[in-house]
Specification:
Layout: H1 2-7, E1 24-28, E2 31-34, E3 39-42, H2 45-48, H3 57-69, H4 81-93, E4 98-104, H5 107-124, E5 132-136, H6 145-149, E6 169-171, H7 184-197, E7 201-206, E8 210-211, E9 217-218, H8 222-233, E10 237-241, E11 265-268, E12 280-285, H9 286-293, H10 310-325, H11 328-343, E13 352-358, E14 361-366, H12 372-382, E15 384-385, E16 392-395, H13 403-417
Parallel strand pairs: 3-15, 5-6, 5-7, 7-10, 10-11
Antiparallel strand pairs: 1-2, 2-3, 4-12, 8-9, 11-12, 13-14, 14-16
The structure holds pyridoxal-5'-phosphate.
Pyridoxal-5'-phosphate is lined by residues 106-108, 111, 140-142, 207, 212-213, 241, 243-244, 269-270.
């Protein structure tokens, strides 16, 4: 523990004044077991990934079997059954137009690849000035440089990286709310935004319906149809980053289905391997792949060392098959109803600004920033694992979480929100 404190960076954590970390010895089902034997009900699914929970027999078996064949071979000039089997599933399951698959090694890399694809596509069409991206404020697309440049400028700290990050164009994020009539003023704002900036843009990139780490914000799927029409009108590609929303989390297999829209490029990651290994994918249409392939450059300028890692692909295939053989839609509905019901009492608390749920995602937005260290100690004491950020206490449990665990998770959040001492005096990002 002392070595960890003194030498290991943790995500968005100081090495001088780190928040406490809790040592995990093992994980099984929806529970994390700490090295002192305490068990925590996991509300985070390890940041959207572990949709089947932990230590899943089917995924363990797939990993073991693949290990005996080979854990890795280079993808340059070689191929293998796990990559083909995964590609076949991704092409079949994603919206119809998406036919070509690039297997990347993390979500951020798949976004890098998507952005490079878009720039190369425009270059191939002779549009060499189209190097900018259009996006919503409040988005999150990863931590490497190109994705960071399209993350929310404030929470993504663009000021800090000014001069290093490329600058792109940001549109106010769509108003909150997934139902009713979409806001007409906002639609006009989108049109004006495209008229002003589209001629310099390679693509519009966004997280469909659910903005995740940029603020847990849910917006009307209808705006995605408007985006599709505007992108077509202005020859701008449409990129959906479904790294968080993919594989059922929002109640559809992919959030694009809420609007019945097919993007030109789609990024997948996180739950792709059921949380076992790092793997991501960038899918694109035939038109994008052909345009790049028929250009003088011919190739997509990307090819990571661990591209198409067989071990990760084999587990991804097993995870997708397990998901599809389960009644995942009923599971997500059940979690949705449970979260909605059990988090609702938080809305009455003075500390709480808003409670919202969508699919198997539950969010309590507070007025003041959470004291992460303090509230987390309370959560761990109560036997649940929740990792809030800023003014957001949110959960996206494994789909297999039983009702009584879900109730305990939500009840503990409500209890914590009633305690003023868990909130900082002023808004603070920690
Ligand atoms: C997590 C996330 C990413 C980045 O994925 P990494 O695997 O962490 O690089 C990109 N986009 C969205 C929407 C995400 O939620």
């Amino acid at each position: 523990m002392q070595f960890d404190r003194e030498h290991l960076w943790h995500p968005y954590t100081s090495l001088v004044d780190p928040l406490p970390t809790y040592p995990v010895a093992s994980a099984s089902g929806v529970r994390l077991t700490l090295s002192d034997g305490r068990e925590l009900i996991d509300g985070m699914a390890s940041w959207w990934c572990a949709v089947h929970g932990y230590n899943v027999p089917e995924l363990n078996a797939a990993a073991r079997a693949q290990l005996d064949d080979m854990s890795h071979v280079m993808f340059g000039g070689l191929t293998h059954q796990p990559a083909v089997a995964l590609g076949e599933r991704l092409v079949r399951l994603t919206p119809d137009g998406l036919q070509r698959v690039f297997l990347a090694d993390s979500g951020s890399v798949s976004v890098e690849v998507a952005m490079k694809m878009a720039v190369q596509y425009q270059y191939a069409r002779g549009e060499r000035g189209r190097t900018k991206f259009l996006t919503f404020r409040g988005g999150y697309h990863g931590d490497t440089t190109a994705p960071m440049s399209v993350c929310d400028p404030v929470t993504g700290m663009h000021q800090l990286f000014a001069g290093f990050l490329p600058e792109h164009y940001f549109l106010r994020r769509p108003p909150a709310g997934v139902g009713g009539t979409p806001d007409a003023d906002y639609r006009r704002e989108m049109e004006v935004f495209f008229r002003q900036h589209a001629d310099r843009a390679a693509a519009f990139i966004c997280e469909p319906v659910v903005q995740g780490a940029g603020g847990m914000h849910f917006y009307h799927p209808e705006f995605l149809r408007d985006l599709r029409a505007l992108c077509d009108e202005h020859d701008v590609l449409l990129i959906f980053d479904e790294i968080a929303t993919g594989f059922g989390r929002t109640g559809k297999l992919f959030a694009a289905e809420h609007a019945d829209v097919c993007p030109d490029i789609m990024c997948l990651g996180k739950a792709l391997t059921g949380g076992y290994l790092t793997l991501a994918a960038t899918l694109c249409t035939d038109r994008v792949a052909r345009t790049i392939g028929e250009s003088d450059v011919k190739v997509l300028m990307h090819g990571p060392t661990f591209m198409g890692n067989p071990l990760a692909c084999a587990v991804a295939v097993a995870s997708i098959d397990l998901l599809l053989s389960s009644d995942w839609q009923a599971a997500v509905d059940r979690l949705h109803r449970g979260l909605t019901r059990h988090l609702r009492p938080a809305a009455q608390l003075a500390t709480v600004k808003n409670v919202r749920t969508f699919g198997a995602i539950g969010v309590v937005e507070t007025h003041r920033a959470v004291d992460v260290g303090k509230i987390q100690a309370f959560f761990v004491d109560q036997g649940v694992w929740v990792r809030p950020f800023g003014r957001l206490i949110y959960v996206m449990p494994p789909f297999v979480m039983p009702d009584e665990d879900l109730k305990k998770l939500a009840d503990t959040i409500v209890t914590a929100c009633a305690r003023e001492e868990f909130f900082l005096g002023e808004a603070k990002f920690r």
